[in-house]
Design a protein that fits this description.
globular, 4-stranded antiparallel β-sheet, alpha+beta, about 180 residues
């Protein structure tokens, strides 16, 4: 009973602080994030927690060695509405189109208020561990992965170095190059 009363008192104090329900939930989600050495969160404006970047460096899989940046925008409807997530770089991936839109079920039909920022980050991490060519946004990459896995891996490697794949120029996303501001 005391625990429930403490939670209710804390909620009343938060509402007096002027924070919206969205910001209260977002602060909770951000404070509970599982930290790992392969994922960073950057705030361009520390006073605005509704816009941030998640940087992911896959430790295994086809995309190992890359550093991928995703912008997150949290709307006032959060957690009832999923965050808006875009890949900042142009990358060759079956589930991410060249404009940066991400095909991830928890950002679409499977989103519900029980999910949180950690759920989205985990989903993004899984896209790099196990890309899903059966639910693509980049159909060319998906068909390449299905029909010629070896060729797909070569295209991923070339694109990560900032090369051209089938007439499309990709950005260098190699983690080592990110520090030196160059590529290859």
């Amino acid at each position: 009973m005391l625990k429930i009363w403490a939670q209710k008192t804390a909620a009343v104090q938060r509402s007096k602080s002027g924070l919206s329900p969205c910001l209260i939930r977002l602060q909770k989600d951000l404070s509970e994030l599982a930290r790992d050495s392969n994922t960073d969160i950057e705030f361009a404006n520390p006073s605005d927690q509704t816009k941030f970047t998640v940087v992911y460096r896959p430790p295994i899989g086809i995309y190992v060695g890359g550093q991928f940046r995703f912008s997150f925008e949290i709307t006032d409807d959060y957690p009832h509405t999923a965050p808006k997530v875009l890949c900042v770089q142009k990358i060759y991936h079956p589930n991410i189109d060249t404009e940066g839109h991400v095909c991830l079920n928890v950002l679409r039909e499977d989103w519900n208020p029980v999910l949180n920022i950690q759920s989205v980050i985990f989903g993004l991490q899984m896209l790099f561990t196990a890309p899903n060519p059966e639910d693509p946004l980049n159909t060319d990459a998906a068909q390449n992965m299905i029909n010629d896995l070896s060729g797909f891996k070569q295209n991923v490697a070339a694109s990560m170095k900032g090369g051209n794949v089938k007439g499309v120029k990709y950005e260098c996303v190699l983690a080592s190059a990110a520090h030196s501001r160059g590529c290859c």
